Amino acid sequence: MNEPILSIRDLTVEIPTRHGILSPVKGVSYDIGRGEILGVVGESGAGKSMAGNAVIGLLSPPAHIAEGEIWVGGTRVDHLAGEQMRRLRGKEIGMVFQDPLTSLNPLLRIGDQLTETMLAHLDISRSEAEARAVAALEEVGIPGAAERVGSYPHEFSGGMRQRVVIALALCAEPSLIIADEPTTALDVSVQAQIISLLKKLCRERGTAVMLITHDMGVIAEAADRVAVMYAGQLAELGSVREVLTRPRHPYTDGLMGSTPLASRGKDRLHQIPGAMPRLDALPPGCAFHPRCPHAQDRCAENPGPRIEDGAGGVACWFPMTREAVA
Amino acid sequence: MLAYVIQRVFQSAIVLLVVGLVAFSMFRFVGDPVDNMLGQERTQADIERLRTQLGLDQPFPVQYFKFLTGAAQGNFGVSYRQGRPVSDILVERAPATLELAAVSGFLAISIGIALGVFTAIRRNGFAAHAIMSVSLIGVSLPTFLIGILLIYLFSVELGWLPSFGRGDTVKIGGWSTGFLTESGLKALILPSITLGLYQMTLIMRLVRSEMLEVLRQDYIRFARARGLRERAVNFRHALKNTLVPVITVTGLQLGSIIAFAIITETVFQWPGVGLLFINAIQFVDIPVMAAYLMLISVMFVGINLIVDLLYFAIDPRLRVDRTAAH
Amino acid sequence: MAETSLNTPTSERSRLRVSLDSDFAYQFRKSPVAIVSAVTVLIMVLCAVFAPLIAPYNPFDPASLNLMNGFSKPMEPNAFTGDTFWLGTDDQGRDVFSTILYGMRISLFVGAAAVLFAMVLGISLGLIAGYVGGWVETIIMRVADVQLTFPAILVAMLIFGVAKGITPVEYRDQMAIWVLIIAIGLSDWVQFARVVRGATLVEKNKEYVQAARLIGRGPGAIMIKHILPNVLSPVLVIATISLALAIIAEATLSFLGVGAPPTQPSLGTLIRIGQGFLFSGEWWILLFPAVTLLALALSVNLLGDWLRDALNPRLR
Q1: Which of A183, B217, C4, C286 shows a CA-CA span of 20 to 30 A to A252?
Q2: For the domain that residue C287 is a member of, what is the CATH number?
Q3: Cis-peptide into A62, omega within 30 deg
Q4: What ipTM describes this predicted complex?
Q5: Contact predicate B136/C305, CB 8 Å
Q6: Number of domains chain C contains
Q7: The ABC transporter domain covers which part of the protein (chain A) (predicted)?
């Protein structure tokens, strides 16, 4: 891989509460290369979105980055001051939220929302921005873009709105897009369209994508590599092919088992026993050991090993061998 | 939209009819008008004649209808206490109250919104905390105490401003204004602050809480994620969305400014309709009370209608027909 | 706000309440504002209840008054009689401290009684409107809407004026306190009714209410045993905030001369009397009742504010 667009090293996010400090993200490291789509999966509360918010500098206080480094396009961004970070948002790092119904300001025309974003980052005239707004809407496949720039968000359907959101995230040409559950709130029939649109646009531009989702189907379809998170930690990191067909972390294996994947050819689903622990009640040792079918004494005593290489790895004392799955 | 407006006008008319019924019932059943109008030396013939003259021998609905048509033409009968037509007294007194209410309303809205936005944006700052604490005292401080406090400070101790009356007024047509003389303007200062302060506090607290609510919304996070400047996020995106609910309450508040004028006018012996009303209650001058009630309801209903129409100006979602939205 | 919080399902609400109870106490201990205002309110209520025992003089016993004591300054012996009064005396030689204690008694009594009246009326009408529905509901809620268009204080004034018109002249002073309670209460029932109706609409279609109906429980029993407990926390918040408003409303009406009569002065009446001496320099006749009223209204308000935040987790 060439020089990664996004590089996260040993990232820890902490939230001080009256019951003590919680760490929704703990010692996470991964890279995303140019034009690459990294799928980040895990149950809700696993820290996927929190890591995304940390990258774009939008952690809501009192959550904050306690440790680690974030590099975007060769610049370290985790300690940037507000105004410097603001310049990067939209320009270097774009973001797509989960619910297109709530991510657009209901009182502003979508054309105005596009132009204001471009004018905030690009050195162009208003008329130039307006022309680009139409082009951006055309690019994301909005029919009649020239007229639709004057429409308000409520005049679009959910899928169309998510296209508008993608146009907004891409209009200042960022090198990294964080897509936080971009299809979860959409109709199933529209999900595939949105994913392939996102994939196509990012491939064309060479934009790196952090695709946060809990949907293994989305990962299988869109991602190049995948990062599996569990209780704030990275469980496994590797190419989609490797991780999906030959998972090495028992949690990933369980996750695959509880997802109806036709290609895996299993006749029945099996479930991981128990539930992911709450952040304020993490077990000692490896966070997954109470639910792990292969856990041994060591797992209860020592925290799992960390993945320190942003390219790939598994955070397990006893990673599964390929034969175990096959 | 037209259907909605017609519906609102219809509802307003019903409110006015109900209030008219209340006013009429007061008129008709509280104290005997015949008793009130004839002196001690009356004959049965006098009473009968007056009853016929006032239409009191007619059936209730007919009397009510006559009362309404009379009221619509500005005919509210004769004040028991002053022996003059109530409409004449009202016309004479109205400018004082309207000028006072206009100045107070302007102060309350402009300062209230400004402080509300400030305290929401800097919600953890020292100044915002200080303003919020003071405002809580403001809400608990009865209007009349504010007036007395201001009189004590600026009239008794400092001797800068008059403590009662309107100062010199200038007659323009039938309207006597205090805006054109120095003493008139000076006399306006303390009463308008007294009257506006409570409403200002309410508007400020409302704007703050609505703004905080809006600032939590996804589209605000998305606006931040697109790298818009803080000023654009706060004013272009957040404030506009805050205004919709604020307008409702502010409309009602403008109504209460007219009602609270009663208190301010009593403290400052301001010769407006509020002082007239309080005197009418003390002396059980029913025609004046009924007329005041009708007058103030027309104002309230009018303000509410204007508020409803303002929604359409601000929120595009209301402008289109529901069917066209999809 | 309160209305939206009612949309949570009951099971979740009751589970919430269990965790809230401990949280509630925790929050109280953690909030100096809540503790100070609660203590202030408690002290003032005790002072009002035991006014006859605490007050050094009975300001309404003509026998104990000495006109020579008029206009005594606070903490200074009177020039003629040598008597000393903590907070001074008014023009008639009444001890200001004692009149405040008795005034507070009337202010608190009127405020609390008015809120109680509004609460009972509002809860009953809200339950009936929500449970019975149909034209009964339409009428109740339309009246509520119309009344809500008008500021409560204006409604109270009108009711007071009308009631005054109905009462015979010789009973007016005696009746004034009760008329005040009814006027303020009637001006304030709408909020209770709205919240209770909203909750009733949500609850009445729940399975457990249906079940209660099936086993033959009457509507009255269902409303009181099943629906009412679900609305207690918003009602408590509204009641506390209403109490502050009712105390201020009473003071305002009395100040305007359309409330408690001089023979039974509340804090508002005392301020009205004191205002007359503002320009002549006898500041204490005005200041002390005013400060008392402010402290009372502010503490109840702060308590209500805190209560609303503590009982509404969404706002935290």
Answers
A1: A183
A2: 1.10.3720.10
A3: yes
A4: 0.83
A5: yes
A6: 1
A7: 6-256
Based on the structure, what is the number of domains in chain B? 1
Neighbours of chain B (3+ CB pairs under 8 A): A, C
- Counted across chains B and C, CB pairs separated by less than 8 A come out at 107
At C281, list the tokens: 């320099």
pTM attached to this predicted model: 0.74
Tell the burial category of A20 from Cβ atoms under 10 Å away from its Cβ (0-12, 13-18, 19+).
Answer: exposed
Question: Are the Cβ atoms of A165 and B226 closer than 8 angstroms?
Answer: no
Residue type for position B276: L
What residues 282-301 of chain B have any CB closer than 8 A to a CB of chain C?
282, 284, 286, 289, 293, 296-297, 300-301
C111 found inside a domain = yes
Domain with C94, as residue range(s), is: 26-315
Please report residues of C whose CB lies closer than 8 A to that of B300. Answer: 149-150
Assess if residue B71 is contained within a domain: no
Q: Beta strand A313-314 with B170-172: parallel, antiparallel or unpaired?
A: unpaired
Bridge partners of B191?
Answer: none
User: Which residues neighbour B198 within 8 Å (Cβ) at sequence distance 6 or greater?
Assistant: B138, B139, B141, B143, B146, B260
Number of CB atoms found within 10 A of residue B216's CB: 10
Residue type at position A84: Q
Q: Which residues of B touch C244 (CB under 8 A)?
A: 140
In a domain, B96, yes or no: yes
DSSP string covering B264-301, please?
Answer: HHHHTT--SHHHHHHHHHHTT-HHHHHHHHHHHHHHHH
Strand residues in B109-206 grouped as ranges (E): 170-172, 175-177
Q: Is residue C69 part of a domain?
A: yes
Please give the torsion angle defined by the CA atoms of residues C120, C126, C132 and C137, in that order, rounded to the nearest 10 degrees.
Answer: 130
Selection from B71, B80, B66 nearest residue B34 by Cα: B80
Domain boundaries, chain A: 4-82+226-314
Rounded Cα distance, C191 and C147, in Å: 11
Up-side HSE of residue A217: CA atoms within 13 Å toward CB? 11
pLDDT, tens digit (0-9, with 9 covering 90-100), for A14-27 = 888 877 888 888 88
Distance to chain C for B311, nearest Cα, Å: 18
- Which helix (H) or strand (E) covers residue B81, if one does? none
Q: Quick one: which of A46, A117, C66 has its CA closest to B223?
A: A117
Q: Which of C37, C139, C146 to mutate to test the interface with B (most CBs of B within 10 A)?
A: C146
Nearest to C198 by CA among C135, C125, C148: C125
Return phi, psi of residue C248, to 5°. Answer: -65, -40
| Kind plus residue range of the DSSP H or E element containing C89 | none
User: Which residue segment(s) compose the domain that B155 sits in?
Assistant: 86-284
Contact residues on chain A for B240, CB-CB shorter than 8 A = 107-108
User: Domain A4-82+226-314 carries which CATH code?
Assistant: 3.40.50.300
For residues B64-93, average pLDDT: 81
Answer yes or no: is pLDDT of A265 > 60: no
C3 belongs to a structural domain: no
Which tens digit of pLDDT belongs to each residue from C267-308? Answer: 888 888 888 887 777 788 888 888 889 889 888 888 888 887
- DSSP codes joined into one string, B230-265: HHIIIIIIIIHHHHHHHHHHHHHHHHHHHHHHHHHH
Residue type, C109: F
How far the first Cα of chain B sits from its last, in Å, is 17
DSSP code, position C95 = B
